[in-house]
């Protein structure tokens, strides 16, 4: 091979192995008006230029449909092409929207071609549909959801729709609260996807000891339990965060200081290691508000995002921080309450939150899981999410229980993170080429 080819190959490996980091983006503005291209451009630019950090250049969307249209592609795509932002696409499938969502997706493929499809990290069919259809979601009155069978049908429709297009190789997934994943009634959805999107909010886990001090432990308990049912598939952190303001939830207190602690302890342990879409950059006047820049768009965050005090050794103790008693093959009893969801849907809403996902680069999470725990004190629970900017959040929770069998996970402990691996290969190739 020519040096140039070696270099090109190495760079393509680096790209393929990249780990994504970004935020969730709803489809409306604070006042409920639809976001258009210029709005998304402002959001994406702001994320890339956040002070004290860098690299937040991926966007998770909830719908393929531009607000105000039946099935035209969301203009976030044009903004992403312009700003070179990668995309975790989402189709809002609850409530009968699948057909129009698919039409918008196909239209985007034919309209924008590879300048669009090259940006696609994956496609989520649905968002928290199983949660909303669960006993807990219905008690919380969080809106219409889908049964696992309906969701699998929608997933199959999307697979058929992209077959033969430039997106045919896209990684297909679904995003839900983590206790929906560990609910064995939903296992057909796990079978149907390539990756599982993990939404988890210790803040909302009111049936647990959900102080900020215990938040990292609860977060990783949820990740471990999800990995335990994932059959080796990737778990991406699609929503997580801690509110900067709002009401207390159980023992959880919303504050800027606590949001920073959650960012430092959870965010800094996953950024760059697993694909992560944080909830959220700007949350307008929602309550609770998860926005790290406050209500007004600004590149000045409410707290230092630098992770400069974070040391990776602190992540090694993740699993021991869980309330566990355990042996290595564990059975976690998950009892809990996923909690209030934003009462938003993709077509109407602007805000949503996301959570971290452990993915193809399970450096930290796999480590945590490998030594993991037996769930124990009966706790733990689902996640939930934030509120929408359109002010329709719901923060209620109720309790339910589910049980999950968590298998011992002997994943890629010690395997270099993909991005590091790719970078090393690229560096070696560069040295050879030079
Ligand atoms: C989205 O929410 C709006 C307002 O709550 C509702 O009228 C609409 O039917 C919902 N659409 C879907 C697809 O759920
Ligand atoms: C488990 O999943 C099924 C199917 O989605 C749902 O009907 C049920 O309510 C869920 N159970 C709990 C405790 O959430
Ligand atoms: C790091 O820790 C020091 C000492 O506790 C603190 O003063 C500083 O603000 C922290 N920096 C960040 C970025 O969190």
From TrEMBL:
EC class of the enzyme, as a word: hydrolase
Annotated localization: Cell membrane; Secreted, Cell wall
Origin superkingdom: Eukaryota
Organism of provenance: Penicillium malachiteum
One Pfam family cited in the UniProt record for this chain: Glyco_hydro_17
Main location, first listed in the record: membrane
The keyword Signal is assigned to this record: yes
Family: Belongs to the glycosyl hydrolase 17 family.
EC numbers for this chain: 3.2.1.39
GO biological process per UniProt: cell wall organization; polysaccharide catabolic process
Keywords on record: Carbohydrate metabolism, Cell membrane, Cell wall, Cell wall biogenesis/degradation, Glycoprotein, GPI-anchor, Hydrolase, Lipoprotein, Membrane, Polysaccharide degradation, Secreted, Signal
Secretion signal, residue range per the UniProt entry: 1-18
SUPFAM superfamilies: (Trans)glycosidases
GO MF terms held by the record: glucan endo-1,3-beta-D-glucosidase activity
Protein name stated in the entry: Probable glucan endo-1,3-beta-glucosidase eglC
Reaction catalyzed: Hydrolysis of (1->3)-beta-D-glucosidic linkages in (1->3)-beta-D-glucans
Any one of the GO CC terms: plasma membrane
The protein's role, per its UniProt record: Glucanases play a role in cell expansion during growth, in cell-cell fusion during mating, and in spore release during sporulation. This enzyme may be involved in beta-glucan degradation and also function biosynthetically as a transglycosylase.
Residues covered by region (Disordered): 370-410
């Amino acid at each position: 091979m020519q040096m140039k080819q070696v270099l090109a190959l190495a760079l393509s490996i680096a790209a393929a192995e990249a780990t994504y980091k970004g935020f969730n983006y709803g489809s409306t503005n604070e006042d409920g008006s639809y976001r258009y291209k210029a709005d998304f451009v402002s959001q994406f630019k702001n994320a890339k230029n956040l002070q004290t950090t860098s690299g937040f250049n991926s966007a998770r969307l909830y719908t393929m449909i531009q607000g105000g249209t039946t099935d035209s592609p969301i203009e976030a795509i044009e903004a992403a092409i312009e700003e070179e932002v990668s995309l975790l696409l989402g189709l809002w499938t609850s409530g009968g929207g699948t057909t129009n969502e698919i039409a918008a997706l196909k239209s985007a493929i034919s309209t924008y071609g590879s300048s669009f499809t090259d940006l696609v990290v994956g496609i989520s069919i649905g968002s928290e549909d199983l949660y909303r259809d669960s006993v807990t979601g219905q008690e919380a009155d969080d809106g219409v959801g889908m049964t696992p069978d309906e969701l699998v049908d929608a997933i199959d429709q999307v697979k058929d729709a992209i077959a033969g297009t430039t997106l045919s190789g896209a990684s297909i997934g679904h995003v839900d609260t983590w206790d929906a994943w560990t609910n064995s009634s939903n296992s057909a959805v796990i079978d149907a996807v390539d990756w599982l999107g993990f939404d988890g909010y210790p803040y909302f886990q009111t049936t647990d000891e959900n102080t900020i001090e215990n938040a990292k432990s609860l977060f990783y308990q949820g990740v471990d339990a999800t990995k335990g049912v994932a059959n080796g598939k990737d778990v991406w952190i699609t929503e997580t965060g801690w509110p900067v303001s709002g009401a207390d939830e159980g023992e959880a207190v919303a504050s800027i200081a606590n949001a920073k602690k959650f960012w430092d302890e959870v965010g800094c342990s996953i950024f760059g290691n697993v694909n992560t879409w944080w909830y959220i950059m700007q949350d307008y006047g929602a309550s609770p508000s998860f926005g790290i820049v406050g209500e007004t768009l600004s590149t000045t965050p409410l707290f230092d995002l630098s992770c400069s005090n974070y040391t990776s050794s602190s992540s090694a103790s993740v699993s021991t921080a869980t309330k566990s008693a355990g042996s290595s093959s564990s059975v976690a009893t998950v009892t809990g309450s996923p909690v209030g969801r934003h009462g938003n849907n993709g077509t109407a809403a602007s805000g949503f939150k996301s959570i971290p996902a452990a993915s193809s680069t399970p450096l930290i999470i796999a480590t945590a899981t490998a030594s993991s725990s037996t769930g124990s004190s009966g706790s733990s629970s689902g996640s939930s999410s934030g509120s929408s900017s359109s002010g329709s959040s719901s923060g209620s929770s109720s309790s339910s229980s589910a049980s999950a069998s968590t298998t011992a996970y002997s994943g890629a402990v010690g395997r270099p993170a993909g991005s590091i691996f790719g970078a090393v290969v690229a560096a070696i190739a560069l040295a050879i080429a030079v």
